[in-house]
């Protein structure tokens, strides 16, 4: 929302976040409220001025863009950042636009539509961006992108890498190749996989973009052209961006028919395929080379069996080897489908799950016999864009519920729905059955406000690790926090021992998401007693999802792997922590900065040798 006219306007020339790039933009106009002191908490500094995005098209603006300083976030995590050393991008010299084989009509259409985009960007720059779509917030500091990094072998190791760690740790993340032209949410970035390969006590590192259809076309054009689902698709300008994209498609300038996803969220190794996923597309098959590098094989439809999107958190049953998944659609019915794959990759028929409206389902859970589907209060209402709003909406009049469906169900007729009021879990860590009480127990982090990740909100985010009990006999649910009020912390991103997924587990390893949205360490939580043991990464060090790598029969026998970034020294490392005593076993010094990211997995060397 623009500031009121009573605000005093100061024409202040700010350093451009992209000063190393040619730009025709005018100096930024900074609006400060009248009669309010400016303190360090009102300043959001960004590392973007030293990030080398490839040279690209910049829509020219004939008017001075007007930007307000975003309302300071209620933590220190994005109000001050460390400026990194200069990072060069090897793509910048090779990623120039390729000659397009367009006919006269296409060339004329391209020119006209570029002018339309220029006018649209000029209009957008007259209005302040919310924090949830402001690149200065969303990709500041170590959330900023990095260039690809070829394999570096024989990395320095402090301590000793445990012998059982033999294979490759891969982690996905959002890493925009191009400078955002308008709004940008952290979730919008292009997918990049970071890989640390372990061989006989030594380690290598590499990171590569997942070459999605979207990224391939944008590299060909030398600029971003696909709409960003969260950062750009708001209100009337979001509608205009969709129309602009469809117009380019109509003239054959871009092609969205082969997927528009970014493949930046999840990773799973299944049936000898490493799959990179985001819920807006099919998975992408990524291959790990013998020397630890990464190559994109292509968009993966399970040999023609999958013709719809697949969410980024499929569940691999550790007992029978089946892979369970959901697919949701925000435009047309069926809004939700469930399916599974046998260990050799044969897909089951879709089970259509009837929903009244399209609902965000980033995650779900499995038990020994059931899939547990959350139908919660964050929904998609595209009509909100017509009135100037966001299509991602918190529906306070809707009652959250969980659906329980047998894994081998042929249809959803026997699906049991149990209400769980005011419950929104972005992630579910595990679930299991307790036959003696006829209950399904679900472990998840309940987040409030439910839509705070997507829409600007004054209320501080809370993520409470919770036990939700769904009684199949009474149809009732109960919910309780697992951790006492005195020890309550935000816990988001993590896992249980994956060898026990869908069965009763004692421990969960979860990111300490404080100060939000940074991660200062991880917690080992006893789900039965509520006891919390914390491992902190160190002063001015932050990380992401802790990956638990099992190494024995005891549930907590294994190691935690986590990328950690030192914001003072501006260096990154991979820490290996003993999961039983929370002692640091080894630290691998990385040759490149690793941005904060999303989810990962570990592939043992014996499985790597069988890669497709």
UniProtKB/TrEMBL annotation:
It catalyses: a 9-cis-epoxycarotenoid + O2 = a 12'-apo-carotenal + 2-cis,4-trans-xanthoxin; 9-cis-violaxanthin + O2 = (3S,5R,6S)-5,6-epoxy-3-hydroxy-5,6-dihydro-12'-apo-beta-caroten-12'-al + 2-cis,4-trans-xanthoxin; 9'-cis-neoxanthin + O2 = (3S,5R,6R)-3,5-dihydroxy-6,7-didehydro-5,6-dihydro-12'-apo-beta-caroten-12'-al + 2-cis,4-trans-xanthoxin. InterPro entries: Carotenoid_Oase (IPR004294). Residues 1-37, 55-98 are annotated as: Disordered. GO terms for cellular component: chloroplast stroma. Its EC number is 1.13.11.51. Coiled coil: none annotated. Keywords: Abscisic acid biosynthesis, Chloroplast, Dioxygenase, Iron, Metal-binding, Oxidoreductase, Plastid, Transit peptide. GO terms for molecular function: 9-cis-epoxycarotenoid dioxygenase activity; metal ion binding. Its cofactor is Fe(2+). Residues 1-15, 86-98 have a biased composition (Polar residues). Residues 21-37, 59-85 have a biased composition (Low complexity). It is found in: Plastid, Chloroplast. This is 9-cis-epoxycarotenoid dioxygenase. The lineage of its organism: Eukaryota, Viridiplantae, Streptophyta, Embryophyta, Tracheophyta. The gene is LOC106759781.
């Amino acid at each position: 929302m623009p500031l009121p006219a009573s605000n005093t306007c100061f024409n202040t020339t700010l350093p451009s976040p992209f000063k190393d790039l040619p730009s025709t933009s005018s100096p930024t106009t900074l609006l400060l409220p009248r009669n309010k002191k400016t303190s360090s908490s009102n300043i959001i500094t960004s590392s973007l001025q030293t990030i080398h995005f490839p040279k690209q098209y910049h829509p020219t603006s004939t008017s001075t863009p007007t930007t307000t300083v975003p309302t300071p976030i209620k933590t220190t995590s994005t109000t001050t950042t460390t400026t990194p050393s200069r990072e060069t991008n090897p793509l910048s010299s090779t990623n120039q636009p390729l000659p397009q084989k367009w006919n006269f009509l296409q060339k004329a259409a391209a020119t006209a539509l570029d002018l339309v985009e220029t006018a649209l960007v000029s209009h957008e720059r007259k209005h302040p961006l919310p924090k949830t779509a402001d690149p200065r917030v969303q990709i500041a500091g170590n959330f900023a992108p990095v260039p690809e990094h070829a394999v570096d072998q024989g990395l320095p190791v402090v301590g000793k890498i445990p012998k059982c760690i033999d294979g490759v740790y891969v982690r996905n993340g959002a890493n925009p190749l191009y400078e955002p032209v308008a709004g940008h949410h952290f979730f919008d970035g292009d997918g990049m996989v970071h890989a640390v390969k372990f061989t006989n006590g030594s380690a290598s590192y590499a990171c590569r973009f997942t070459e999605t259809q979207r990224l391939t076309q944008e590299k060909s054009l030398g600029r971003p052209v696909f709409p960003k689902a969260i950062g750009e698709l708001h209100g009337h300008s979001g509608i205009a961006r969709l129309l602009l994209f469809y117009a380019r498609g109509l003239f054959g300038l871009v092609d969205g028919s082969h997927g528009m996803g970014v493949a930046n969220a999840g990773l799973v190794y299944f049936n000898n395929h490493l799959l990179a996923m985001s819920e807006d597309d099919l998975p992408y098959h990524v291959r790990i080379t013998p020397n630890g590098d990464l190559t994109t094989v292509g968009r993966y439809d399970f040999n023609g069996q999958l013709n719809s999107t697949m969410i980024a958190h499929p569940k691999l049953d550790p007992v029978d080897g089946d892979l369970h998944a959901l697919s949701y659609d925000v435009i047309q019915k069926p809004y939700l489908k469930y399916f599974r794959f046998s260990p050799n990759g044969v897909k089951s028929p879709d089970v259509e799950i009837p929903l009244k409206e399209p609902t965000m389902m980033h995650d779900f859970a499995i038990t020994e016999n059931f899939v547990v589907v959350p139908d919660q209060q964050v929904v998609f209402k595209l009509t909100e864009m017509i009135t100037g709003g966001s299509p991602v909406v918190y529906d306070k009049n809707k009652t959250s519920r969980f659906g329980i469906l047998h894994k081998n169900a042929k249809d959803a007729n026997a699906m049991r729905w149990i209400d769980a009021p005011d419950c929104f879990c972005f992630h579910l860590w595990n679930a299991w059955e307790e036959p003696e009480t006829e209950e399904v127990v679900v472990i998840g982090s309940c987040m409030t406000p439910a839509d705070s990740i997507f829409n600007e909100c004054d209320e501080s985010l809370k993520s409470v690790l919770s036990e939700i009990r769904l009684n199949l006999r009474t149809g009732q649910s109960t919910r309780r926090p697992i951790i006492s009020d005195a020890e309550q912390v935000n816990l988001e991103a993590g896992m249980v021992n994956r060898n026990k997924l869908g069965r009763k587990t004692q421990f969960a390893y979860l990111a300490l998401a404080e100060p939000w949205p940074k991660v200062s360490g991880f917690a080992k939580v006893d789900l039965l007693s509520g006891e919390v043991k914390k491992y902190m990464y160190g002063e001015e060090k932050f990380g992401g999802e802790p990956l638990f790598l099992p190494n024995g029969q005891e549930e907590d026998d294994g190691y935690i792997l986590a990328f950690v970034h030192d914001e003072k020294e501006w260096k990154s490392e991979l820490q290996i922590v003993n999961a039983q005593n929370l002692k640091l076993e080894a630290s691998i010094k990385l040759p490149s900065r690793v941005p904060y990211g999303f989810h990962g997995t570990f592939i043992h060397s014996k499985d790597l040798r069988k890669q497709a």
